[in-house]
Design goal:
The chain is about 75% helix and about 0% strand. It is an all-alpha fold and about 180 residues long.
Length: about 180
Amino acid sequence: MKILTPAITKKVQSGIINNITRREYYRASQEISIVLIELYANIPEKNRVSYGIVYTIKVLSEYLYTELTRIGAPVYEVAGTLFQESNDTKPKCVALGIMSFYGLGSLKETLGYFEAAAASADWEMREIAQMLFRKLIAKHPNEVGKFLLRLAVSPDANLRRFVAETLRPVRENKW
């Protein structure tokens, strides 16, 4: 299902990428929220239960990661700044999604962001974080295993739940 249309792609370029290159992260964050609504509207109604907001975040995150890499932007710094400066959950989750793609090549730098999201008081942030984190398990099983073992014994119930939800049997986890 293709929800990223040419019109939305143009909006991403002009509203998100351009604001990022000008270091106007708050404005980029606002544009991310608008684009996510448009992406969600492109999901056929009968598919919205299966392909909801998490799907739109994954689609936008992957596109932004690819574009930021293509233009030579400092992807890690951009995603980190978006995560820290966004006031809304969904742009923070898009930043985390960008981090998840970055983490495929450089895991250690991204773990702190996933831990912060997992410890968040925001339920939606925690749920989306564990879904985005799953792709890192297959790529970095040993490092992720150590990270998850540390979180599993945390006094923070949200961190322990992140571990359980990340490892539960789903399509992405092939066990």
